[in-house]
Write a structure and sequence with these properties.
This protein has two domains: 209 residues, Alpha-Beta Complex (Quinone Oxidoreductase, Chain A, domain 1); 131 residues, NAD(P)-binding Rossmann-like Domain (Rossmann fold, 3-Layer(aba) Sandwich). Helices cover 24% and strands 27% of the residues. The protein is built from eleven helices and 17 strands. The strands form four sheets. Strands 3, 4, 5, 8, 9, 16 and 17 form a seven-stranded mixed beta sheet that branches. The chain has a six-stranded parallel beta sheet with strand order 12-11-10-13-14-15, covered by helices on one side. Helix 4 crosses helix 5 and helix 4 crosses helix 10. The longest helix is centred in the C-terminal third of the chain and has 13 residues. The protein is globular, with a radius of gyration of 20 Å.
């Protein structure tokens, strides 16, 4: 039987979120039912609830940073049992048969992965996210949260953690490498922690020095203000990898100038506006401008295990569900250190 649960939803584009009830599907033989304990607020929740990235599905229950406890399992489930600590990230299904899926890159499913919210499931019904009391997901798209991680600080790892871990690993972050993180927000602060734990020399590039003390405490070795033109002169040709986490268009030519020969500028932020780029800034020095989108399920589990081993959780502000709309405005004003997490017991 389906389950009725309380949730917070945006009834229409740009409308304030409000308390409502939604239906969760019956637990199938390969499904797990998770009682959600905590749900992170990602900037992409705001982009989608306000249709910044295009037409969306309403009512929308955002949330793809989900941490909770398994309370029911289907008859064929082998990876989870009742009582396990589990998480759900940005996707809840994929075709499972295409080349990317078979390679553990479900986020790049040729048919399109099923998003945790603002998507259409294989049953033809809209998907609803983590701003709710429970979620039902096929076991292959749930991950185990290690005991060493508190569920509240683990929730943001399901997006912010994997979104930064995957490209940092892919582009060879480690001892002897110089890595810059652009922006010290929800994504950026995780990028600093993870790059530091991987053994790189880490620099934060932020608009101002307002968060410098935080950045250094989180693991950065250096901190520069991008509003100071001298920064781009002083750091020219310095970095092996630059990870841009910001959701605003940048002067990519200027940032490419900070790379060593053969270096990579990897973008995980998703601005709503297109960018302009003079290709000569790529040609000189054989530089790379790349993108990265979350990670596959196996890599997400790898990231969680890595974070548990190194004592890495998100820096959070725990809020009640009634504060979601206020939290959205604060995110837009960069007034959060560094991830809002909803205590779903308050929904």
């Amino acid at each position: 039987m389906t389950t009725t649960v309380a949730a917070y939803a945006a009834p229409s584009s740009k409308a304030p979120l409000e308390r409502t009830v939604i239906e969760r599907r019956a637990v199938g033989e390969h499904d797990v039912l998770i009682d959600i304990q905590f749900a992170g607020i990602c900037h992409s929740d705001i982009h989608q609830a306000r249709e910044g990235w295009g037409e969306a599905i309403f009512p929308m229950v955002p949330g793809h940073e989900i941490a909770g406890i398994v309370t029911e399992v289907g008859s064929a489930v082998t990876r989870f049992k009742v009582g396990d600590r589990a998480g759900v990230g940005c996707m809840v299904d994929s075709c499972g048969a295409c080349e990317p899926c078979k390679a553990g890159q479900e986020q790049h499913c040729v048919e399109g992965n099923v998003q945790t919210y603002n998507g259409i499931g294989k049953d033809g019904e809209p998907t609803y996210g983590g701003y709710s009391q429970k979620v039902v997901v096929t076991e292959g798209f749930a991950v185990r949260i290690p005991d060493a991680l508190s569920l509240d600080v683990a929730a943001p790892l399901l997006c912010a953690g994997i979104t930064t871990y995957s490209p940092l690993k892919h582009w060879g972050t480690g001892p002897g490498k110089k890595v810059a993180i652009v922006g010290l927000g929800g994504l950026g602060h995780m990028g600093v922690k993870i790059a530091h734990a991987l053994g790189a020399e880490v620099t934060v590039l932020s608009q101002t020095l307002r968060k410098k003390d935080d950045g250094l405490k989180l693991g950065a070795d250096h901190y520069y203000a991008t509003s100071d033109p001298a920064t781009f002169q002083e750091l020219a040709g310095t970095f092996d990898v630059i990870l841009s986490t910001v959701s605003a268009p940048l002067d990519f030519g200027a940032y490419l100038g900070l790379l060593k020969t053969g270096g990579a500028l990897v973008n995980v932020g998703a601005p709503e506006e297109p960018i302009a780029l003079n290709l000569f800034s790529l040609l000189g020095g054989s530089k790379v401008l790349a993108g990265s989108m979350i990670g596959g399920i196996a890599e997400t589990q790898e990231m969680l295990d890595f974070c548990a081993e190194h004592g890495i959780g998100a820096e959070i502000e725990l809020i009640e569900a009634s504060q979601i709309n206020e939290a959205y405005e604060r995110v837009l004003n960069s007034d959060v250190r560094y991830r809002f997490v909803i205590d779903t017991a308050t929904i």
